[in-house]
């Protein structure tokens, strides 16, 4: 593209697939028509726990256009997957409401949907339990939380130090179940061609999908191809294979025709993962000067009975602030609930809401500026491991954010600023996210016309991966960006890890940089014109990207928020939201800003509008679609400001980059909550801060004549 000419690594190159997306030429998983393509619609369990006694498919099969109904009685038998959520239509057990019990395959989408409505299922119903409490008798401390983090870590004597502290905060915080709801629902189109399986899947990692499908369908990995060329968001819910791709492949095998499965949005909360609720207790003990002497963060969450997933909400606390005594622990309760899974910044997002809210409460108790309190407790090394940080510029982020936000002129007194019925306040919170990287392979190809092709099975989920990888390649090759083309999103390309954990660009880019560096060296040695087939170079970062580092590697940031709270309606409006980040070298200023403000918007939703309710009687989420689960609309989002500091970290990867896709959500909810406290003098410790909750607190405050929970 001409617009890319001369743009170096770090410059604001436009996303290369942008025009294809806005003109509709970019094809997503459900948009690959093939001769004879069929459509399938799932049937879900209407009980929270039990066993299927009988399935009546006669009425469905009698409808025009319906070809077959797959159930546990006639579906292909698959090898048992490591992920039990993929073992669909394999037995009569119902582990939770919404579990797939049948799949109707028809000539049209409408016929499939009508057929699904006509299927009748008789269940042997069993008692269920979906209610999470801190004292649930089935709770236990897991050996590991999500991501391989230890379930419990303790240093010193945290209980004794807390009891002896001059100033103490002891508070509980609640984050409800949250749902990913990407713009593109989970979808797959599958086709068997001469024994070979070809799948278009809405996934964050085609390589992983291929490996899992090969195992389940007993195929060699080179016997199938998974294509995820364009993906309309995922936020973690497409990080590993989801049931739609298994259902599509099974239906295509049975019918001998291509089959598309698109999961209805109302089913997403129960079948593709969600952020599990967390009940958190944070205790902070400090000396009179604000120095932390004890940090205790205890988390209770749930998992399903078929797959253990523990939201690692206390892990970020292990890296944030210096304290000689600390305890971070997770307690998980197996319930008859849908399996939770990854959602943007799993662990960090809910955990840092609790920690950073507690830090604000401690600042109030000390009569200390909350920015100064955080700076006063800056550690020299990572508190949990004792490792030196590869780079840590949280203090610079806090100071730069405070400068840009004009924090110095803030009146620290709650309820000090009003505009008619509005109370105005501001808040701050810190953020962190680990640097994650996985081995990847890539190839670089020099063509005779002077252009280059870089191939890697990266997945562009809307982050601009194609563009950034081309910038990395052009920089390593020493050529203009317009001469580099990238091919991604196909499992026939060189193997690559998924787009998740803010690790995609760091992982793929390392391999791309290495392949292009080798190609440049080969070209330097070559004389004369290139051969007809060009010149290739490959790279595999196994052994280097996954080598243990002697450094603690994390990105950091600071969030500042200003809110207006309507004392008549209880409505909270964010007026200004500012983030400053230290995330290594920024590889593309345009796409980086997009990632930061996108995550900040998601954090705004977490703070004010997003929340789900588990119905105890039915074992189902009451908020099943976007009419009930409220994501922020344009009117809710102010002009967001995202800035970053220059950070030179040589201990990461050849680009010096850290992940940026998730850190923007981490501190946003806490900053907004702290701003609400500053505005009203009320401390609301349960998200989201909806008008009913805020108005109730304001009413109680007026009735009692004092702040509630301050």
Give an account of the 3D structure.
- This protein is an alpha+beta fold.
- It is 26% helix and 24% strand.
- Strands 3-5-1-14-11-12-13 form a seven-stranded mixed β-sheet, with helices on both faces.
- α9 packs parallel to α16, α12 runs parallel beside α13 and α14 crosses α16.
- The protein is globular, with a radius of gyration of 26 Å.
In short:
By secondary structure, the chain is an alpha+beta fold. It contains 17 helices and 28 strands.
Give the overall pLDDT as a whole number.
96
Relative helix content: 25-40%
Could you describe the largest sheet, including whether it forms a barrel? 7 strands, mixed
Number of extended strands: 28
Distance between the termini: 56 Å
Q: Which structural category do the helix and sheet elements fall into?
A: alpha+beta
- Count of runs of 4 or more consecutive helical residues: 17
Strand order of the largest sheet: 3-5-1-14-11-12-13
From the spread of the alpha carbons, the general shape counts as: globular
Beta content: 15-25%
Radius of gyration, in Å, reads 26 Å
Low-confidence stretches: none
Write the layout of secondary structure elements.
Elements (H helix, E strand, L loop, with lengths): L17 H6 L14 E7 L5 E7 L1 H4 L4 E6 L21 E2 L5 E7 L2 H10 L1 E6 L18 E2 L3 E2 L1 E4 L2 H7 L2 E9 L11 E7 L2 E6 L4 H11 L7 E4 L15 H13 L3 E4 L5 H4 L6 E9 L5 E13 L12 H4 L5 E10 L12 H19 L3 H7 L17 H12 L12 E2 L2 E13 L6 E6 L5 E4 L9 H13 L6 E4 L16 H22 L9 E6 L13 E13 L5 E11 L6 H20 L5 E2 L4 E2 L18 E5 L18 H4 L1 H13 L10 H14 L6
Parallel strand pairs: 1-14, 12-13, 16-17, 21-22, 25-28
Antiparallel strand pairs: 1-5, 2-4, 2-6, 3-5, 7-8, 9-17, 10-15, 11-12, 11-14, 15-16, 18-19, 19-24, 20-21, 20-23, 24-25, 26-27
Helix pairs in contact: 9-16, 12-13, 14-16
